[in-house]
Amino acid sequence: MSEQGFGWSDDLGMPLLAKMKADLKAAMLAKNEAVKGAIRVIMSEFPTKLTVPITLEGGKKSNRPKREEEITNDDVIGIIQGLVKSEKQTLELKKEATSDYLQVLESYLPQKASEEEIAAWVKANVDLTQFRAPMQAMGAIMKHFGKTADGNLVKKVLGSLAG
User: Fold this and answer.
1) Domain map of the chain by residue range?
2) Phi, psi of 52, deg, nearest 5
3) Local structure of residue 50 (DSSP, 8 states)
4) Contact 114, 106 (CB under 8 A)
5) Any bridge partners for residue 61, and if so which?
6) Which of 86, 126, 131, 161 has its CA 20 to 30 A from that of 53?
7) What is the tens place of the pLDDT at every residue in 82-127?
8) DSSP structure class, residue 97
9) How far is C-alpha 22 from the geometric centre of its chain's CA atoms?
10) Largest Cα–Cα distance in the chain?
11) pLDDT in tens, 30-87
């Protein structure tokens, strides 16, 4: 999808939400239904999934939707990852490999860290001898890579470094 200018990456230097809004406008003008529909689905998740706890005047606890300036890239990425997982399950049931919707969703996710990148960072920054078991280093590694690292891949790297 990125050949049409749709999609996002960290090096664009703009927040994910701003890029999605610009892409939605462009998709509407270009009458690109796949992109327009996918972005609208993502944004429709915001009011229910992106909330901030508040206390009302009477002391009752409640939630309010996050304001646009409070929404982070990680918030949006989390929503997109959930939608990707759901779409993959749907496609699996239909016995299909991919869909336009899935391709649009994935174009807004950051590039995943490779096994080599994770291993190199762990070797350079983590002293596995400080931990009783190598898997205890998982938290520090996931904190560094955030949503760009697959937890199963990190486990595999730790297993190979420990062995």
Assistant:
1) 2-107, 115-162
2) -120, 130
3) S
4) no
5) 55
6) 86
7) 999 999 999 999 999 999 999 999 999 988 888 898 889 988 988 8
8) S
9) 19
10) 58
11) 999 999 999 999 999 999 999 999 999 889 999 999 999 999 998 999 999 999 999 9
